[in-house]
Amino acid sequence: MNARDVVYEKDRGVARITIDRPERRNAFRAETVDEMTAAFEDAARDASVGVVVLRGAGGRAFSTGGDLSWEGSMLPREIPHELRRLMRLSSAILDNGKPVIAAIQGYCVGGGNQLNMLCDLSVATEGSRFGDGGARVGSLSFWWGLELLPGLVGDRRAREVLFLCRQYRAEEALQMGWITRVVAPRDLDAAVQEWCDELLERSPQALRFIKTALNRSVEAQYPSVVNGGFVAELLHGTEEFREGMNALREKRRPRFERGGGGGR
């Protein structure tokens, strides 16, 4: 597999997918998404692979989501196409048939957090940061963020996360049910390997059917994700979104105008 943004390795039953853009805090662009998808699809086809590990390179971030050069410059009419690209990636994770572990060190926010929530197990290092900043920039987590977070942390906490756009340390995320385990940075690799060793001793057939059954409720939310794409398409054409993106680039607080609005 020829790739620029992703490192893909297989060894002793474990497929390891690493987002390799540390200079961008492992933010992803279209090529990154396609390369991750190809890696997950290969792991699904390979009978010798029993577990998949997803991580970010460099130690500063698992992923901060969509790169500004990609997501921030998207035209509204491009949103449906890019959502299809992202949906192929999420399907490659959810339909993989093999347990997927997120190994998190550093920032896990925005689309990076959505990647984390698509995985089956998540282990994070102490001090890692979780959050979603969609409302801060005039957008929303239209790729699974709105659908998966309430199931992990509960409806009230999900509203807190999505409305207030705060960041949460790994220890808080663990208490909320957002992730599975927290370890010291030096213990991350050992913790991941421990899970891999245990999973490789389990029945591949049983794991596949368990994952399929657990994901039934997730699959039922596909229409909501598609609807979120339509909403994002509308938002990306607004002055609020442009102001949010400009503020993010200029590292200042956005100046959103009040007034108008209403209910649904």
C-alpha Rg (nearest Å)? 18 Å
How many beta-strand elements? 10
User: What structural class do helix, strand and pairing data support?
Assistant: alpha/beta
Instruction: Supply the number of structural domains.
Output: 1
CATH architecture call:
Alpha-Beta Complex
Unreliable stretches covering 5 or more consecutive residues: none
- What is the helix content? 40-55%
CATH class type: Alpha Beta
CATH-defined topology: 2-enoyl-CoA Hydratase, Chain A, domain 1
Strand content: 15-25%
Walk across the major sheet and give the strand order: 1-2-3-5-7-10
CATH superfamily: 2-enoyl-CoA Hydratase, Chain A, domain 1
Q: How many DSSP H or I helices? A: 11
The coarse silhouette is globular
- Helix-strand sequence: EEHEEHEEHEEHHEHEHHHHH
Tell me about the largest β-sheet: 6 strands, mixed
Arithmetic mean of pLDDT: 94
Task: Report, as a whole number of angstroms, the end-to-end distance.
Answer: 46 Å
